[in-house]
C-alpha cells in the first residue's frame, strides 16, 4: 500500500524536512537517509526504518522490491520531495531511520576514537575507512559533529549501517575502557612519539585521533599508552585527520591480521 501526499503542509513532509537539523533529529529520534543504495543498506541493517518516501518520477529498482514488503511507503510530487531532501539534486528516494541506542562497552576489539572531529566529510571518511579495515567500531567524543548529519550519512557510503558507533563517549568513559585492558594509541607529536611500524596492535586497542585544528586534547595525550606519529618525506606541514586516520587504521588492520 502506497500513501499519496500532495501537500507540502502535510505533517510528515514537515517532519522529514526538519530532520536536516540536529535539534529535530533529537526531538523525533530519527535521521534522514537519501538515495536508493543507502535506503537499501538501511533496510538490510539492524536500524529501524520508519518511512520510505519517493518522488512520483522515481522508478523503484528491482533490488528494493522485496525489502519494501511491510514498509510504510509514501509517494510525493517531485517539488515536495525536493523540499524534504538535503541534496541539491535529489535521487528520488529517501527514508527515515530511528536513532540507535549507544552499544554497551565491548570486552575487546579494534576501535578508533575521534576527539572533537567537527567536519562531516572527515568523520564520514573515518567511519567508511574503519568499516573497510575491519574495525569493530568508531567512538565519538561529545563535541564531534553529529554522526547522523545528512551530509555525513551520505559520505559514509553505507558504512554507517555496517559498523558500531559509540556516540557521546567522554574522556572519563574512554579511560575506563583503558582500565579494562584497552591500550590507547594516541596520534600526536611528542618526544615519546613512535612510528606506526614500531607499534603492535592487540585485540584491545583504541586509536585516538584529534580535532582538525588543535589535535588530541592534553588529557588524552597524558593518558596514552603509546603516542604515534606518521613520518612524512615531503614538505607538507601536516595531514588531514581523515588521511592520518586511514594510514593508522591500515597499519593496525594489517598488524592485527584483519587485512
List the helices and strands and how they pair.
Blueprint: E1 2-4, H1 11-18, H2 22-28, E2 30-34, H3 36-43, E3 49-55, H4 62-65, E4 73-76, H5 78-84, E5 93-98, E6 109-114, H6 120-132, E7 137-140, H7 150-155, E8 164-166, H8 171-179, E9 183-187, E10 204-209, H9 218-223, E11 226-228, H10 241-255
Parallel strand pairs: 1-4, 3-4, 6-7, 6-10, 7-8, 9-10, 9-11
Antiparallel strand pairs: 2-5, 3-5
Helix pairs in contact: 1-5, 6-10
Describe the structure.
The model has no long low-confidence stretch (mean pLDDT 95). The protein has a six-stranded parallel β-sheet with strand order 8-7-6-10-9-11, with helices on both faces. A five-stranded mixed β-sheet has the order 1-4-3-5-2. The chain contains ten helices and eleven strands. The protein is an alpha/beta fold and 259 residues long. Helix 1 (11-18) crosses helix 5 (78-84) and helix 6 packs parallel to helix 10. The protein starts with a strand and ends with a helix.
Strand numbers in spatial order across the main sheet = 8-7-6-10-9-11
Order of helices and strands: EHHEHEHEHEEHEHEHEEHEH
Content-based structural category: alpha/beta
Mean pLDDT: 95
| DSSP, total strands | 11
Distance between the termini: 45 Å
Q: Strand percentage, roughly?
A: 15-25%
Q: Fraction of residues in helices?
A: 25-40%
Query: Rough shape?
Result: elongated
Q: Unreliable segments (pLDDT under 50, ≥5 consecutive)? A: none
CA radius of gyration is 20 Å
DSSP summary: helix tally: 10
Biggest sheet character: 6 strands, parallel
